[in-house]
Amino acid sequence: MQNTLDKTRRDELIDAASHLFRSQGYERTTVRDLAQAVGMQSGSLFYHFKNKAEILEAVMAKGVADITAVAEFALEGVTEPKEKLRRLVTGHLTALLGSSQHALEVLLYEWHSLSTEARDRIVQLRDRYETLWQQVLDEAATAGLVHPDTTFLRKMIFGSLNWTVQWYRPDGSMSIEEMGDRMLNLILRG
Amino acid sequence: MQNTLDKTRRDELIDAASHLFRSQGYERTTVRDLAQAVGMQSGSLFYHFKNKAEILEAVMAKGVADITAVAEFALEGVTEPKEKLRRLVTGHLTALLGSSQHALEVLLYEWHSLSTEARDRIVQLRDRYETLWQQVLDEAATAGLVHPDTTFLRKMIFGSLNWTVQWYRPDGSMSIEEMGDRMLNLILRG
DNA sequence: CCTACCGATCGGTAGG
DNA sequence: CCTACCGATCGGTAGG
Q1: I want to staple A35 with a disulfide (CB 3.0 to 4.6 A). Which of A42, A174, B39, B41 is the partner?
Q2: A157 within 8 A of A187, measured Cβ to Cβ
Q3: Cβ neighbour number for residue A185 with a 10 Å cutoff
Q4: Contact indicator for A68, A132 with CB cutoff of 8 Å
């Protein structure tokens, strides 16, 4: 029971931290900002987290976990390589520009604020997600749908996907699904 | 004469700041770190710059100016659309991963530390560079070399290019030129 | 989770 | 460009 309550409060903190770290940056956000955002005293933060760095790691870990879950769910029951790829693209964009936007932007832009140990742990989580992509791209290459150098291709795709946070505006004329389809068009051969 | 000396010292500071802001982040870098890097007292920094934020802006402005100069030089005398595109790609990678690496990474990753006024000024500089690309891509599209939606394509390309800082290692087996050619291969139609 | 607090450090300034 | 310094703020802790 107490564990459940702890978890909720912890999640609230991670959520608030995602927002603050993303809009002001990690270093610029003070523990006082964060405490105020969830309505507690700054000293009380350290009942939930050992230190400020641990909060950053938790935000990033949540970001990777979220986008991985989205991808796994999107692939469920799908067998056609092209459709798998389409769903991975759309899923990535949906998480990045919608549901897990803040945590994922923190993941992308606060890398240098992580300790090397924390970095290793996040890399491990990220690798699982990248493996998912690699497998789908390999299938697609076997089917002749994409360029055979899938490792290189994957890096190019990741770059394009992640860059969307720099320019995509949800209130514009292009929906996330439409953007995904356009990207897929550029990725597919011929 | 004094102006020349001032400029040199200023440039030294911008160089040192590029390195420090990139490796530690802007907020984490103190004016004392920076002063020590060029061998002066921390208070003396403010003889050269009004405040810390002005140094960040100077670093970023130098980054954009550098990469624009590289692009303009690379295009000089070239008339064939495909070759123009190849040179833009290679030029971008050369600046980003080599000659102006630090300043450009700061430009990519410290965006949220800029004031809105400084942001506007940097955007203006960046627009000039993007226009260069847009024109070359439009020529290439007219020649049927690339997908006709060049605005979208340009954003995808920028993403792929800028993402290379996350994974490219100069001591690996792939040279920058080779990487450029591979990217061009994915960009070109057919 | 709060109260009360501390040591350290930060960006920046005045006066030369 | 240096010396000497300040007010503000920071992450974190002890004790409850």
Answers
A1: A42
A2: yes
A3: 11
A4: yes
Q: Does B123 touch chain A (CB under 8 A)?
A: no
**Gap between the Cα atoms of B121 and B126, Å rounded:** 9
Question: Ramachandran region of residue A39, left (φ > 0), alpha (ψ -120 to 50) or beta?
Answer: left
Residues in chain B: 190
Q: Answer yes or no: are the C-beta atoms of B66 and B104 closer than 8 Å.
A: yes
The secondary structure of A163-188 as a DSSP string is HGGGT--TTSS--HHHHHHHHHHHHS
The tens digit of pLDDT for each residue in B119-150 reads 999 999 999 999 999 999 999 999 999 999 99
Residue type, A64: V
Please give the domain boundaries of chain B with CATH numbers for all domains.
Answer: 50-187 (1.10.357.10)
Round to whole Å and give the CA distance between A72 and A62: 15
B160 to A156: CB separation less than 8 angstroms, yes or no: yes
Q: Which positions on strand C lie below 7 Å from a protein C-beta?
A: 1-5, 9-15
Tokens of A138: 């390999």
Task: Check if A113 contacts B (Cβ < 8 Å).
Answer: yes
Give the number of A-B residue pairs with CB atoms closer than 8 Å: 75
- Burial of B105 (C-beta count, 10 Å sphere; 0-12/13-18/19+): buried
pLDDT grade for B7, boundaries at 50, 70 and 90: low
Residue B87 region by backbone torsions, left for phi larger than 0, else alpha for psi between -120 and 50, else beta: alpha
| Chain A residues near residue B161 by CB distance under 8 angstroms | 159
Predicted confidence at residue B132, as pLDDT, reads: 98
